[in-house]
Design brief:
about 55% helix
């Protein structure tokens, strides 16, 4: 793979991170509002789905998962393999 493939795959992983965190925040409402019902389990399943989507925030070269708390604009190179992730 060339450099541009890694950059585009990293941009896609940033989008997955944002969508995953948004789904996790949306899933909090059914868990709180419908405690003890089937909708509670739906909210819990939605939270798990959001976390699985957010776990796609990783290096496209080596597969190292980045911490979700780190801003994507702060990551230029992978700490594990040294691949350049930004233009």
């Amino acid at each position: 793979m060339n450099h541009f493939d890694y950059v585009s795959r990293f941009k896609r992983s940033v989008i997955f991170k944002r969508i995953g965190i948004l789904i996790v925040f949306i899933s909090i409402w059914p868990i709180v509002a419908y405690e003890g019902t089937r909708l509670w389990w739906g909210g819990f399943g939605l939270m798990v789905l959001g976390l699985l989507i957010a776990m796609q925030y990783k290096c496209p070269s080596c597969g190292k998962h980045f911490d979700l708390r780190v801003w994507a604009s702060n990551i230029t190179y992978c700490n594990n393999c040294g691949t350049k992730l930004r233009d």
